[in-house]
Amino acid sequence: MLLGSRLLNSGKVATPVYITMLAAECAPVIKVGGLADVVFGISRELEIRGNAVEIILPKYDCMRYDQIWGLHIMMPDLWVPWYGGAIHCSVWFGFVHGRKCFFIEPHSSDNFFNRGAYYGFHDEALRFAFFSKAAMEFLLKTDKRPDVIHCHDWHTGLAPVLLAEVYKFHGMQNQRTCYTIHNFKHQGVAGANILWATGLQRPEYYFNYHQLRDNINHGALNFMKGGIVYSNFVTTVSPQHAWEARHTDQGYGLGHTLHVHADKFGGVLNGVDYEVWNPETDRFIPCRYGVDTLQDKYGNKEALRDRFWLRKDYKPIIAYVGRLDQQKGVHLIRHALFYALWNGAQFVLLGTSPDRDISNYFWHLKNYLNDSPDCHLELGFDEDLSHLIYAGADMIVVPSLFEPCGLTQMIALKYGTVPIVRAVGGLVDTVFDRDHSDRPIHERNGYVFHQTDASALESAMQRAIGLWYSYPEEFRSLIANGMRYDYSWNYPGQHYLNIYEHIRHK
């Protein structure tokens, strides 16, 4: 972590870098969550800075083919060693909004990526072990020799292992790996069959605590642990979450491994794509505005009320946008809704839940509140609509139990919507309490609470609502403070270039 902090604050790097991204997702062609946005965002930022970036992805049957330009087979015959034989693959190439992307399509009875969904299958570990193996074979056989192979999440955790234990002996000894962990909860736990499938062999070697053996289940291998052990540098998606992963249960069993490898571990805050999320240019909102034309924001507030049939009254609108699950503090989301209604505010929610019980509860709540003129629940995923909510709301609640980075609060700040957040993960690194932060007053941009109980949330909401009603000019200053922050990919891009430069010259 100390090394990580020195790297993140080092000087600018001038030498262009050739980077290959390995990932299971990339927006907008393959998107389930924030991983996709990060892979696309950091790739574009690195290219803008004059570096060469290529992205290797699985070729899923259900991906957004309409988001790919010039898709064609560039390598019809890639044979990937697998168990005692080999699987025949085709490698496709196309541009995803300007990014150079290669898509690996295996042709076998395993049918790894032709299942109508990206995730959720019993052989998940085998699917992505094969993807890592195929990606390394592709780099080897096409003589592509990137300076840095940047791997993302558990899906590609075996790639640094394969490079260090196999491919460096076949002409890839100069390649370096950076491994970014977006979510410690999903680690890729599998049995010894992975070793035979990928050609790593030697179970007595890899089932060592210092290699791939899972820290909790000693009869299993852990892909994410492999990525940590074998990569030249490891990052997670905010400095605060890097600390939490090492020192709290948010490392999900990997805390000791991160401690052992602390000299190559650090947190790099994700960025927001300001070409997509920018109220001055946003095509999804009726009234565009900036920090100097803040009065135009309120046309969006009227449009939001029209859209959701809310009464037009002198009240603030408080919003929630995101998944409805335990991680996001679902009990606090519910409490925020009722606290808003009881304290002179309106509340709008946009979200969906993968959990049937939570989903049923919020449908029940929607029906219960259906006639309220101050509340609307939109239970679904609608990214276009989310733009109007960010632009039209006065405040947004993000009461997460854990939040590695979080994009919601950073988008809200750009749109002049004051965040009310719990002090965890990337929320700590981006939102600074108006009343209690040690930062200068002009750098404070929201409200922060620490505990997971209702009274903690209420204290922050009470202060926010009270300022809106009693001191509107000060509330407007708070909005402007937030809008002036730069949470684009500019700074993360430089941080990653510093890391790349470091590991290239180790």
In short:
The protein is an alpha/beta fold and 506 residues long.
Show the helix and strand layout.
Elements: H1 2-8, E1 18-22, H2 34-48, E2 52-58, E3 69-82, E4 85-96, E5 99-107, H3 124-141, E6 148-152, H4 158-165, E7 176-181, E8 189-190, H5 193-198, H6 203-206, E9 221-222, H7 223-230, E10 233-236, H8 239-247, H9 255-260, E11 265-267, H10 297-308, E12 317-321, H11 330-342, E13 346-351, H12 356-368, E14 375-379, H13 383-392, E15 395-398, H14 408-414, E16 418-422, H15 425-430, E17 447-449, H16 454-470, H17 472-484, H18 490-504
Helix pairs in contact: 3-4, 4-7, 10-13, 11-16, 16-17
What does it look like?
- The chain is 37% helix and 19% strand.
- A nine-stranded mixed beta sheet has the order 3-4-5-2-1-6-7-10-11, with helices on both faces. Strands 14-13-12-15-16-17 form a six-stranded parallel beta sheet, with helices on both faces. A two-stranded antiparallel ribbon has the order 8-9.
- With 506 residues, the protein is of the alpha/beta class.
- Helix 11 links the parallel strand 12 and strand 13.
- The chain folds into two domains: 285 residues, Glycogen Phosphorylase B (Rossmann fold), CATH 3.40.50.2000; 194 residues, Rossmann fold (3-Layer(aba) Sandwich), CATH 3.40.50.2000.
- The chain is elongated and about 70 Å long.
- It contains 18 helices and 17 strands.
- The two termini are 17 Å apart.
Gyration radius, rounded: 23 Å
In spatial order, strands of the major sheet run: 3-4-5-2-1-6-7-10-11
- Any idea what the CATH superfamily of the largest domain is called? Glycogen Phosphorylase B
Overall tally of structural domains: 2
Distance between the termini: 17 Å
Q: Strand content of the residues, in percent?
A: 15-25%
Structural class: alpha/beta
Q: So how many helices?
A: 18
CATH architecture of the largest domain: 3-Layer(aba) Sandwich
Shape summary: elongated
